[in-house]
Amino acid sequence: MKIGILQTGLVPAELAAETGEYPAFFARLLDGYGFEFESWSVVNGDFPEGPEAADGWLITGSRHGAYEDHAWIPPLEQLIRDIYAQGRPLIGVCFGHQIIAQALGGRVEKHPGGWVVGPTTYRFKDGQQKVINAWHQDQVTELPQGAEVVASSDFCDYAALLYPGHAYTVQPHPEFNDDFTRALIETRGPGVVPQERLDAAGKALGTPLDQRAVADQFAHFFKQKALA
């Protein structure tokens, strides 16, 4: 099964040489599930010809806001709607979570509670809790039609959304390990994220993460278009 990765942001230049770009993060997260990957840097205007270019799709995170005026956002929203209409499985993470909601009629805004950074506990509707690294200020504030809330946190009501038979999206970053999150705290956080949030996130690093559990969810959705 071929997964098309739509890259909507760039890894900070000082980190990319070691980590690779965001499509590599997801190839590592989903390693072992039998997928092949191809990526398009839509943030740089590189788009696939259409939904038929892959069997399933994944949209990455980004430092950009879904509501910002960038030339690549309207065609990305149209591609999302086309993928959705064809019923090809679609997964979104952080910005991907937000842009899918916006493209389908929802709303994305800066949250008045500010930034969420580092290991964060999310409550899933099946009763399970998962700890996943987060890095965001924007979040979905109004749901599009057909979206079901499947996870929330103390700071994010709509932390994971299921569009039955079409899409599954999450606000946090299961592809971020502690090393990368620490690097973001040190390089991207100062002067942007309040220092007390950075300090708290740094102290929380080392909390066991549920990256594999979310990877299992993603893989199952790609193959079955349903949550496990």
From TrEMBL:
Q: Which Gene3D superfamilies match?
A: 3.40.50.880
InterPro entries xrefs = ChyE-like, Class_I_gatase-like, GATASE
Which Pfam families does this entry report, sorted A to Z? GATase (PF00117)
Read off the CDD domains from this record: GATase1_1
Tell me which GO cellular component terms the UniProt record holds. Answer: cytosol
**To which species is this protein native?**
Alloyangia pacifica
Residue intervals of the Glutamine amidotransferase domain: 75-177
Protein name as annotated: GMP synthase (Glutamine-hydrolysing)
